[in-house]
Amino acid sequence: MKKLLYQLDTDQHPSVFDNVVAYDGGADNVIGYGNVTPDNCSALVEGAIFTRAPKEKKNTAIFVGGSDMVAGENLYKAIQKNFFYDFRVSVMIDSNGSNTTAAAGVAKILSGGSVKDKKCVILAGTGPVGSRAAYMFANEGASEIVITSRGIDKAEKTCKELKERFGIDAIPAAGPDYDDRAKLCKDANIIFAAGAAGIELLKPEHWENNTNLEVIADANATPPLGIGGTDMMDRGENRHGKLIWGAIGFGTLKLALHRACIAKLFESNDQLLDAKEIFELAKTMA
Known about the structure:
Structural class: alpha/beta
CATH topology of the largest domain: Rossmann fold
Number of strands: 12
Low-confidence stretches: none
Distance between the termini: 32 Å
Shape: elongated
Strand content: 15-25%
Number of helices: 9
Radius of gyration: 19 Å
CATH superfamily of the largest domain: NAD(P)-binding Rossmann-like Domain
Strand order of the largest sheet: 7-6-5-8-9-11-10
Largest sheet: 7 strands, mixed
């Protein structure tokens, strides 16, 4: 029996990236739908849950994607409302690649040592990757998590959402320029850069001589990188006494993790793969 993955995307066009990785993850057929919302998803979900016998339902799964994490989470919840008894299929959410990217980055940091009782600063952390990384650092016992943004309002909003969504406490901070961000990182042990592509957040002189700093991970692979003086290919490279993970350096794990999650969907029909589950798998793979 063929393994069918229904790619329900909140954007107009289903992601080609997610489609390719789904095939590489073991799906026999990937069927993509765009502009899927909580209001129009029921017929699609019903088609997935009613068609195969109970023991064969594990061969059907749903992937929630799209560039908008909030829209993706709303769709993810709406899909599950259609499930009852054993009329359900496994579902994974990875809008904007946020869960797999954050999980891979944090897992690689953990491969070099614990983050328990460490201070973590997430630069430009108000997006989905930054917020998921914050949850993962908190889950591993970080003592303090700082979320920065150019303006304090956006950082405060993200910290409030993290409290509501995951029950974690993060500290909002404004970092409009290099010097402000460097000051916020002065006593940090870990920096996770989650800014937009092509935006430099720190120059080399803002971190190279920071004696408190132990690890840097930069999710930006588009020059200029988020952290000046690093390389997108860094795989735990020691630079100035700090371990550096570049976007491509941990991106290989991100891709492998995404593929592994797709394969896992077809093991049973009752799995829900969100930030927590994806992170747990990432730690076993790192």
